[in-house]
């Protein structure tokens, strides 16, 4: 098939491989989204805007971020995918 990723049987080994492969990306995404949520909360409270607007702006920002960035990848193949 052309897929040169290893087949990992153990769930623990799959989780370890996934986190090792995507760990930096997961931390960066969490930092960006946390910063966005914090900035939007400060902005909404600073201008005295309604609280629901904070939720809407934060949600739109998170959805936009997920559309702009590429998804996390798996460096392995599960036994079920063979």
TrEMBL record:
InterPro entries per the UniProt record, alphabetical: DUF8119 (IPR058432)
Domain (DUF8119) ranges: 9-77
Organism domain of life: Archaea
Name this protein carries in UniProt: DUF8119 domain-containing protein
Record organism: Haloterrigena alkaliphila
Source lineage: Archaea, Methanobacteriati, Methanobacteriota, Stenosarchaea group, Halobacteria
